[in-house]
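Predict the 3D structure for this chain.
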Amino acid sequence: MKKLLVIVAAVALVAVGVVGTLAFQRAFEPSVRLSATSIQEQLTNSSELATAKLEYRGLVRYENGDIDFINKKGFTMVYDAEVRAGVDLSQASVDVSGRTVTVRLPQARLLGIEIDPHSIEFYDSAFALFNWENKQDTAEALKTAQADAEGKVDQTGMIGQANEQARTLVENLLHPFTVGEGAYTLQIVDA
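Done. Predicted structure below.
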């Protein structure tokens, strides 16, 4: 009987030691706390983020003047453009309430359509005796290419893709805080 009491006491001491050690570790283990300010700072550092990009190749015809060979000239032009859409994450708002993090993302917008001037190729050029300035032709070609790209690119689709990718970016940024014991719940909503 005495041996049984000693064994029970030894098991009890081991159990108390294990529980005590775990309690001690939890008491001095640093806990991760999220604050709206820390998340807002991370988002602001990303600020105007292009989350969708499209490479576009355009073909356009340009004509200027009205009398053939005198002042009427024209050309067909091929150009490359880069279209970017994204979200300004500095405009996002963050709220941490208990174990729930709510991020309100602003709507994506078109950030720009940039024509690569080195990609412009001219074909089917028509010469004009009194209208032959190459500098003016290049400037007109860039304006024409810009207007053509703005009219033909599906901006709604680009903005939708940019919104989805911004959501994915925020989910990935806050993923470490949404898994494991004591995890936060993440809600991403449109502003």
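The first helix runs from residue 2 to 28.
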